[in-house]
Structure formats: structure tokens, C-alpha cells
């Protein structure tokens, strides 16, 4: 070992070590250095073997599940997820899998409750030992109860089904009461989230069920102002859009294809908006758009649903995303996934995964009061920075962050949820 003092180019001193050699050029302590690597390898192997045994805990849960996380899988996780462990309750089939008999259950715009559950079942962060879990996922599908009258999800059973599930898990295992449910996760993918009603007035009047107010709610509903339906710890998630449908469209019409539709919208646009419970649908925004631009050849506006409408999105430059009953819309995800610039018309909306999706760089936001100026606004953007917005929109990371997959994929929507949960651990 040699110690060097400071000089004009160095401040302080540093240490350099070297093997001391004999006069004949052979290293001293030859035997030790020759076998040192084998001694080190045996020592480390014994250490990791002992550690794995010490960390083993028996599996305990409502049902019987076999399987463990592989060390290789764990190594693939980013550092922020290394400490995250999520326990997924095994509930009787009436709470989830029975509903899958209806094919729509796993494919409609509220199907994130199904997709997240499916992805977590095979996730690297899943633990089969609840005693080491940071969070507990409660897999209850409440949006698959479709009305026989209008075909839309009927939320009338949601509160009772969730309450029943909580009674079951709290009676079978002790973890609900450990933190009064604050480490338990629910999905509320309906219009007004955990208020479980499509009409805002009724949703606010009924509020979030008391037993969920301490818990974490993954919900599509999010606004930047105070609202009773987000009065629980919540993470805003995107509505469900089938990645298979997106890939199918892109295989025939790539997002770089020619876009011959300037402004696109297909959906409910009432000439005389329905007045339900004292509320006007879309706060009359969609009606104003139809009246103002219905005869404008630049605007491709259609009121009737069409199963293949994604093929129209991929042909469009701007896609209108006005509020409906709630601020959010599946058009947000569909537009981004297919390279159409989303035009968000929903005052105060809180968008999902702001850290991963640069919304201000890939979309436009137009105030509800300014829909009458929509034509001029879009003309100005088309003449100035449209190409920059489209370039940002084509970033595959942006698309990936808003789509759910059967298995968690790096950067996808379930991955973003796990990142958000891991950040809660760091607080």
C-alpha cells in the first residue's frame, strides 16, 4: 500500500494498493490468493442459502394457491418496485369470475377492474404471504352487472357486493383491522368512482361507502377541485381500451398513415340534451359542438355508435374528447393509442399517470365555455405546432402507459399503478 500526498493537481491524498512481489517476481502469500476466489464463492453461497431460509414464511389465505415468485422474476423489477408486495385475496367466484361468463365484462370501458386483477395474479410483486404484504387487493367486479333494459352497467348492487366482500375478508383474516383498511385496494371504474352512480347528484348524495373511506381506490374519476366522490386515497387510472383491438387496427392502418379527417367525434350528441335529475347531459357541450359545427365539412361528427369506429380515429388529426355525465372518456385512451391528438373539453379534469404521460405535450385542452371557438383554435394549432404534438404522440411509451395487459408489462397501465403504490410506501 502506498500513500500519496497532495500536489498542485491533487487535493488531499489517495491510497493505492498493490500486491507485494518477491525479488523473483512471484506474489507473496501465493496459496492464499490462488484459493481466495473459491473461499469467497463458498462463503457467499452459504450466506444467500441461509438468508432464503430465514426469510421463508408459510402461505396463508382464503383459498389454496400454489406457486412462488422466482428470484429471476424479482431481479427484473425496477428498484422502486423491489420492496413492493401485494396480496391478492382469493374470494368466492360470485365476487368476480362468475361475471366473466358475459364476454362484455372483460372488454367494456369499465373493465379495468378485471384487467388489473388478472395482471396482479401473475405479477412479480404478488405475495402469497399476507404477513409480508404492503397492500391488499380486493378483487370485486361491480361493473359487469349489465341492465337488461339499456345494456349499461347497473351499479345498484355495488355497495352490497363490496360490503359483503369486506365482511368476508375481515372475518377470515386479521389484516383488514391491522390498519383499518387503509392498505386495502379497490377498483371503482364507473363514472363517479367510489360513489358508484352514473348521475353526479345521486353519486354525491350517497357518497363513498364508509367502509371504503380509509382505503385506496383506483378510479377513472378524477378532478382537480374538491369533490365528495374522491374523498378517499385514490389513484386516477385510464378507462379500459382493448389492446388487442388497438393492435388490430394498427396492423391494417398504421398511425403514420394519411389522416383525411380533420376533426372527429362519434358518440351521443343530443339536439335537445336530456335533463335528468336537473342535469344537462355533457353540460350542453356536445350539443353546442353539434349545432356550431354540424355542417362544417372539416368536422366529422356522428351521433350513432359504430363498432369499427377506431378505424375512423386512426384516420383523424384531432379527436374531440368532451365530457359526458362524468369528465373522463375512453376517447382519451383511444385517441392517444391511435395517434389522434386528443382535444380535451372537460374543465378541471385530473388525467391519469401525469408522471408518465406528458399530457400538455400530446393533447389540447379547451375550456367548456370556448367550444364555440373550437374551429379557430384547431386551425391555429394545425398551422403552428401540430407536427411537434404528433411526434410526441407517437412515442410508444405514451401509448403503453394507458393500456392494460393480461400480464404486467414494463411501463403499461398496471405497472404505472404499482409505481404509484410504491411511492406511497416512500412517504
Automatic annotation (TrEMBL):
UniProt keywords, alphabetically: Glycosyltransferase, Golgi apparatus, Membrane, Signal-anchor, Transferase, Transmembrane, Transmembrane helix
Segments traversing the membrane: 31-50
The keyword Membrane is annotated on this UniProt entry: yes
One Pfam family from the record: Exostosin_GT47
An annotated Gene Ontology molecular function: glycosyltransferase activity
Membrane topology classification: Single-pass type II membrane protein
Keyword Transmembrane helix assigned: yes
Coiled-coil stretches: none
Domain Exostosin GT47: 83-379
One GO biological process term: glucuronoxylan biosynthetic process
GO CC, one annotated term: Golgi membrane
Subcellular localization, as worded in the UniProt entry: Golgi apparatus membrane
Family to which the UniProt record says this protein belongs: Belongs to the glycosyltransferase 47 family.
Official protein name in the record: Exostosin-like protein
Species annotation: Cynara cardunculus var. scolymus (Globe artichoke)
Upper taxonomic lineage: Eukaryota, Viridiplantae, Streptophyta, Embryophyta, Tracheophyta
